[in-house]
Amino acid sequence: MRNDTFRALKERSFTYLWIGEIFTQIAINVFNFFLILVVYRLTNSNTAVAAVVISFTVPAIIFGSLAGAFVDRWSKKTVLLSTNIVRAILFIMLALFVHNVVIVYAVSFFVAIATQFFIPAETPMIPLVVREKYLYSANALFGVALFGSILLAYVLSGPLILFFGDAVTLIILAVIMLIGALFISFIKLVPAREVAERRRLREAPNLFADMKETFTMLSRTKVLYRSLLLLALTQVLILIVATIAPGYATQVLGIRVEEFPILFVAPAALGVLVGAFGIINLFHATSKQKLATIGLFLSGLAMLLLPFGSKVASREIVHDINMFLPHALRIDTIHIMVFLAFLLGIANALVFVPSNTLIQEETTDEIRGKIYGFLNSTVGVLSLLPIIIVGGLSDMVGVSAVITGLGVVLLCIGAVRLIVK
Questions:
Q1: Average pLDDT of the chain to the nearest whole number
Q2: Model-level pTM greater than 0.85?
Q3: Which of residues 183 and 50 earns the better pLDDT score?
Q4: Which pLDDT tens digit goes with each residue over 212-221?
Q5: What percent of the chain is modeled with pLDDT above 70?
Q6: Would 197 be classed as within a structural domain?
């Protein structure tokens, strides 16, 4: 096996960025699950959970593109530092009013606003701290950090909340966020990039012209807008799954909501890690567009099968296999769900790593933040209506029907990509 995955860690500042990203993502992902859990516990409603998800997607619509334009005029390192500090303060504030649903929504909204400035700075920071030959490796490692942090976050979230309680958990998350800020403070830019960064920061801002430039570049570069739409689609899917996760856990799987992270999110995040390593070490020469299309089909297939785990487990052939397996390894609905979650993770990596690399290859430092800001806005716009619909729809027709519909949609999008070259 090629040992190319860790090449970017030769760049010390990327290592600091990478570690800072791990701590930051652990904090924000535990916080996101924390919000969903608290609201579901207080209201016992999928619609109320949908409102939480909306509270951190609406800011993307309002501030996403605008934040990207500002971030390209500011020091990205400073943006990463300041947004981490602001979010840590908001976590501490929420600890004082954690069981007030209105305040939970409000803090979620303000954390999301800060995040709109963080996101256009984090991934565009990669080309500022690594040389171009390490970009693929850096994006794979960033995917590992992002989704590996999700794995750790959702494995830790249940025990943290159960052992320490809601308020203390929020204080711990604030500390973790500040540790991320500390590592980010150690970053130094690649010398040639630092000179360009300083020159760019001295330019007079023209936000209207900047946003017009972004739209023009996206409309003229097929690889760029297709990669952007793929990333948007995967993020929208994650938000939708987060919305219906409590109902899926209790209504379909028959487990407690607190058990869902370890049984679904953890194997999905592990799948991302496996997928990222596989891309760099086994499929590095494969077309990035082809990998993304495969990822779409794999996502659709896994989603389509998720509601039918009990039917598969009840098949006679499965019973025959179980007769020869130890009790702990016997195939049941949970095992099938864990396997499908793992496939979803691999599929996500097949979209995430190639698409981010293509965007960075096709853009410059001067516009990259605006591109990712536009991505945030796109995610917000595309996810708002589906989140509203699936929350209520899940309460009306059931979570299983909604998940099946999502699988069909993903397979159709994959088919369109094959037809439209």
A1: 75
A2: no
A3: 183
A4: 666 676 667 7
A5: 67
A6: no
Quote the CA–CA distance of 403 and 357 in Å, as a whole number: 30
Report the 10 Å Cβ neighbour count for 101.
15
**C-alpha distances in Å from residue 1, one per residue of 10, 17, 271, 318:** 19, 26, 18, 34
- The answer, yes or no, to whether residue 1 has pLDDT greater than 80, is no
Q: Find the CATH number of the domain harbouring 310.
A: 1.20.1250.20
Are 15 and 126 within 8 A, CB to CB? no
315-352 per-residue burial string, b: 16 or more CB within 10 A, e: under 16: eeebeeeeeeeeeeeebebbbbbbbbbbbbbbbbbbbb
List alpha helices for 99-186, DSSP H.
101-122, 126-129, 135-164, 166-185
What letter would DSSP give residue 261? I
Count the helices and strands in the chain (H runs, E runs). Answer: 19, 0
pLDDT at site 110: 92
Joined tokens for residue 20? 């800072």
How many domains in the chain?
1
Q: What is the C-alpha to C-alpha distance for residues 280 and 102, in angstroms, rounded to an integer?
A: 45
Count other C-beta atoms under 10 Å from residue 264's C-beta: 25
Dihedrals φ, ψ of 75, to 5°? -70, 120
Query: What is the Cα 221 distance to its own chain's centre?
Result: 24
Give a yes or no: residue 195 inside a domain. Answer: no
Residue 59 has pLDDT above 60, yes or no: yes
Which of 64-73, 296-305, 352-361 is modeled with the greatest confidence? 296-305
**Residue 167 has which token pair?**
């308020």
- Overall average pLDDT of the 319-331 stretch: 59
CB atoms within 10 A of CB 102: 8
Whether 1 is in a domain gets the answer no
Cβ-based neighbour number of residue 179 at 10 Å: 19
CA distance 63 to 46: 26
Range of the domain at 376: 7-190+202-419
| DSSP states along 361-372 | HH--HHHHHHHH
pLDDT at 226: 77
Q: What backbone torsions phi and psi does residue 3 show, to the nearest 5 degrees?
A: -105, 55
Distance of CA 336 to the CA centre of its chain: 23
HSE, CB side, 13 Å, CA atoms: give it for residue 32: 26
pLDDT tens across 116-154, in order? 888 888 777 877 877 767 776 777 777 777 767 766 776
Residue 196 falls inside a structural domain:
no
Length of the chain: 421
